[in-house]
Amino acid sequence: MSCIFCRIVNGEIPAEVIAREPDVVAFLDVQPLADGHVLVVPRAHAAAVEDLSPEAADALFRTVVRLAGPVREGLGAAGTTIGINNGEATGQTVPHVHVHIVPRWPDDGAGTVHTIFPRRTSRTLPDVGAAIRKAIG
Ligand SMILES: [Zn+2]
Questions:
Q1: Cα 123 to ligand 1 centroid, rounded to whole Å
Q2: Catalytic residue IDs
Q3: 29-46, pLDDT tens digit by residue?
Q4: Ligand 1 centroid vs 76 CA: distance in angstroms?
Q5: What is the pLDDT of residues 55-75, one digit of tens each?
Q6: Which residue of 3, 77, 98, 133 has the fewest CB atoms within a 10 Å radius of its CB?
């Protein structure tokens, strides 16, 4: 098994683990963007969000909800930015779903989720809405 997050989940690679739950493990990112940068991963390997089973998705987000407050409070932060890079084209470097919880402080120099996008759009909202609704089926 070569997936580094599966190996952490299985205890084959050491990590600074924050929580071990039946379906989810949370640990500190080894290349933290800030003190307290936590990764929350499903135990079952899934490359992308859309590959998660409903049960894995439920467990994953329940753990994110449970940890967001303690991550903020434990680091004395003012808030957290929570995000997922979903797919290689988005910058996801480990193809095992992981939710970033990054503590934030006023004037910490980081941007919002909105600042990662150049706001290039070309289609109307109704056109985009129709395209997504059609894909949902
Ligand atoms: Zn994996």
A1: 36
A2: 98
A3: 999 999 999 999 999 999
A4: 31
A5: 999 999 999 999 999 999 999
A6: 133
